[in-house]
Design goal:
Structural class: mainly beta
Largest sheet: 5 strands, mixed, barrel
Distance between the termini: 28 Å
Radius of gyration: 11 Å
Strand order of the largest sheet: 1-2-3-5-4
Shape: globular
Oligomer: single chain
Number of helices: 1
Length: 79
């Protein structure tokens, strides 16, 4: 299991908004696609400002029981 992942983001979709915000997106690393989720407000705001497939990001997180990466840190490599 890799925790530090670098790739581009695609398929950004807010799942819930109030009272608990939750977002899902797909991280693309070469041919591999990883489903990601986050409930961190700073990460949600940053991801919603990105364009699908254009920006490179670095993610850190853990996998949950559904094999989704629960993102705890996000760094935008190129804006």
């Amino acid at each position: 299991m890799r925790n530090n992942l670098i790739g581009s983001i695609d398929k950004i979709k807010p799942l819930t908004e109030y009272p608990v915000s939750l977002i899902r997106f797909t991280l693309i690393i070469g041919k591999e696609r990883i489903n990601c989720i986050s409930n961190n407000k700073e990460i949600i705001d940053s991801v919603l400002c990105l364009v699908d497939g254009k920006n490179t990001v670095a993610l850190y997180g853990t996998h949950n029981s559904r094999k989704q990466l629960k993102v705890s840190k996000l760094i935008i490599k190129d804006y």
